[in-house]
Amino acid sequence: MNTATLAAPAAPAEAPRLAAGIAVGLAAASIGALYTVYARWGIAQGLHASDLTALRFGVAGLLMLPLLLHTLRQRREVLLGRWRLWLAVAALAGTPFGLLMFGALQFAPASHAAVFPFAAMSLAGLVLSALVLGDRLTPRKAVGIGIVLVGLVLLSGVEAGSFSGRALAGDAMFVAAGTLWAGFGILLRRHRLDPLLATAVISVSALLTYVPVYLAVEGTARLATASATVLWTEVLVQGAIAGAGTLFTYATMVRLLGPARAAVFPALAPGLAALMAWPVLGHVPTANETAGLVIVMAGLILAVTTSSRRTA
Hints:
Blueprint: H1 3-7, H2 10-44, H3 49-74, H4 76-80, H5 83-93, H6 95-104, H7 110-113, H8 116-133, H9 139-156, H10 165-190, H11 195-217, H12 221-225, H13 228-257, H14 259-262, H15 269-281, H16 287-304
Helix pairs in contact: 2-13, 2-15, 3-11, 3-13, 5-6, 5-10, 5-11, 6-10, 8-9, 8-10, 9-16, 10-13, 11-13, 15-16
């Protein structure tokens, strides 16, 4: 029996998986857009980026803590037997990622935040998948990601004059954060990690590392003086929806699509945020933002619908 006969049924079987992966990817990008918009809204109400990060990590960690404790009681070997792997997962997508992303905003303009981390996620996901997992680096996939990057630049309105020495330091942090996130996807796929358990490990690790430092350095003065509407809205959006939801949907997407294709979906978040900002912040999407979103979507479709099967 030749290998072509064995491989033939794989294509039709992949269609439902691809459709499910795209649906989860759109959900993940929508969550990313939602927390971006409400982060801007919260900051306009007097909160700081560090406050929102603490809410994100703190609430998600508390929500996921029962699951982690249950796993420790019922399936201790799943965690303790692979503790080095789980530590790597927490390092790639937990506190270090958050510190790099939010820290970069202190150096680089917001327009750069819509390009560099997502460009790094896509490119690093593509390269690492080829090197580590043996995924095919097809011309169609590369062209699709190239189109995505063009759309991001148009959408963000990045100008040449914005590249100061200080901004370049922030851009390097954005690239490092995006690369860490891509590495997170590689680990998930290579070791077939459970998405929900990965979400719990990352969330609880961030709760135990970031939140105590935040409380010691920043305190709770701004959170205490925020209105109930602002505080509970951010608890819901940053903590419950984004804190846990972003990790879980991305991890599920990696399982369904693979890390290279999954890493493209976050690039939709800036464009979707421009649309969501209309009713929340009163920002009407510009022609460039609309065109950039359309171009990103076209590139994403081209990159995601290509075959992800490995080379022989």
